[in-house]
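Example record

The entry below shows one chain as it appears in the dataset: sequence first, then structure tokens.
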Amino acid sequence: MFFANLIIKAQQVPQYSQMALRPALFNPAAVSNAHAISLEGLLRGQWTGISGWPFSQTVMANMPLPGISSYGGLLLSNDNAGALRSTNFQLRYAYAKKLQNKQRLAFGIAGGIMQVGLNGDELITPDGNYSGSIDHIDPILPAITTNAVAFEVGAGVYWNNQKWYAGLTTERAIATKTRFNFENGNLLLKNQLHTTFNVGTEFWLTNIITLHPNAVVKTNFKVLQTEALLIAAFSEIYQIGIGFRGYNPNSIDAFLLYGGILLNKKLSVGYTYDITLSGLRNTSSGSHELGIKYQKPLLFKSAKGKTLYNPRFL
């Protein structure tokens, strides 16, 4: 009997163009931004027009934990890319400490599980036979869907004052491996450490226009990618923005167009279109991303027993 182990590396962290606007996507310490019960959803179709283009969905729920300077949240995401599907569930916790000069520093941790599915019937090998039935002519690769599970841990730090904010986080902090067990061997996916740094600010351009420049740097310590986004908000209701992903000829990926609207005090919607600039530009019709955020003001009792209504929305 032929038996073998294959080890491959895969990108487990999905790409989102609204990362800078929603830092809790990747940084558990940024859960401390939730001054109300916050529900967010994101849908992204990347490099549409290409066979097997990645399709990602994420749902987040975050809220403050009154009285203990803490915040809690959960995240559920699903990412489909070619023959691989990755589903993640995380619990998050953040603790925030007020500093001098209206500064605040938060620390966060995240833990959860990741299920990865390999659709063997979508794999194609150079010598495979696919007329009528699936035969990869490979002693290891399956012709059916196989699932594997791994644990994941992350941590982050987040700082802000009245105008600036910055965060640093690690995802997949423990170098676990997702193991697929087949009849004639194993396939191991190495879960790589991902580190992300983000920074941003806001300032008034006129009495009705505010500018929000921000930047994100991502790396797995082998490959580095950058992203910059400039958003203009009008009367704190309408938003338009432009951005760019990449920093040299080898990393240039896309030009970003963003639009958003605050429908009411509780609900906001944002849309991003990525114009592909990489080598995929001749076959990709771009990437589409839709984000929705709903916030419900938090009702709680103070130490004196009074009911407080927190109307702050970020």
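Notes for this example: The radius of gyration is 22 Å. Confidence is low (pLDDT under 50) at residues 1-11, 301-314.
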